[in-house]
Every structure is written in C-alpha cells, then in structure tokens.
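Supplementary notes for students who missed Thursday's class. We covered one full example, reproduced here. Read the sequence, then the structure, then the short commentary at the end.
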Amino acid sequence: MRINQKKNGRQANVFQKTLAHALGWICLTVGVIGLFLPILQGIILIVIGLTFLSVYNAFIHRHLHTQLSKYPTMQKRAYTFEAAVVRLFGQP
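Structure (token representation):
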C-alpha cells in the first residue's frame, strides 16, 4: 500500500510540474505575441509565464526578480503570484 501511495504522489508531482511548465510556456508565447497585438497585454503575460517557470528554474527566478527590482509594484505582485503558484503546484 505504501509503495502505491509514494508512486501516486510522485506521479502527481510530475503532473503538477508539467502543468506549471506548460502554463508558463503558453503564457510566455501568448505574451510575446501580445507585444505585437494591441488587444493582449504582452508584458503582463510574459511576467506571468516567467513566474510559472521560475518556481522550478533557479536561473529564471534569479533574473526575473533582479529585473523586477526596478519596478517595486510589479515585483510585489510577482511575489504574491509566485506564492500562489507554489501553494497550487507545490515547492520543487
């Protein structure tokens, strides 16, 4: 019974990580497209996508927060969103 529980927990973790990566790349791609289309908010979607990806990638996390330190309001929102992503998808 314990082996199945560990296996199911590991599968859930892999699924959550895959889902976070997929959402991150989708938001990032739509954000880049949004830079050229006036309907979409490109920068906001890029930051959201990078925040999804930064939970599992230290390089992106470090550089995202270095760049956002120039914009305190957006940095605060990114930290809040990152905490929500960690609660939803779990810490790596």
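Commentary. Residues 2-89 form one domain. The mean pLDDT is 81. If anything here is unclear, bring it to office hours.
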